[in-house]
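Below is one record:
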Amino acid sequence: TMQFARNSYYLSPSLSDTLDQQAVQRQNNNNLSVNAAYTHPAGKNGLFKVQYDFSDLPSSSVKNTADYSWSSDSYSLPDSMLSGSFTSRNLAHKAGISYRYKVKRCEFSMGIYCQVSSLSNLQSFPFDYSLGRDFRNLLPVASMQYRLSNTKNLQCNYSTATQAPSATQLQDVVNNTDPLHLYSGNPSLRQSLSHNLMIRYSAADTRGNSNFSASL
């Protein structure tokens, strides 16, 4: 990435400067996941499911920034304040049980999952820095589907999920793409926890060959 910016401060002319830089950034993200599930009938209309999920999310980000040198006519002046090397890895184990029941026009299910995850961060440039965090979460899920008629259907789903921050979000390197608005990553970021609720109604008109649906 090539960047050239001239900043003029009218109240403080002595602070005016020119920015002429070249930045090379390499990012690598991988995702390894394994899951296994076992289902078993529970009575005439019920079904139990036991599930286990494993995920390994290693990522890395390397950014090298150099300023322009008039003497060599090239970008040969390393800028350590805008450079960095960072790796991150998130290991997660999730296990739980769910139950599904169906009777006539109604079907519902509910479950609970326990997730244990470990996030490790390692920075090797411009200075050595390491940080490890462990997280434990209970993640409930539930769903319901009700057939109002042969052509009308009402569905409701609720789920929870976690997401680990990316290496770019964790890397403590200043981003000066806009020199007047600087920002950097935060190595102490925690994982995010989201709750999702969806309600959907659908209806079909077989005679008029039309469909209607609304979701929230």
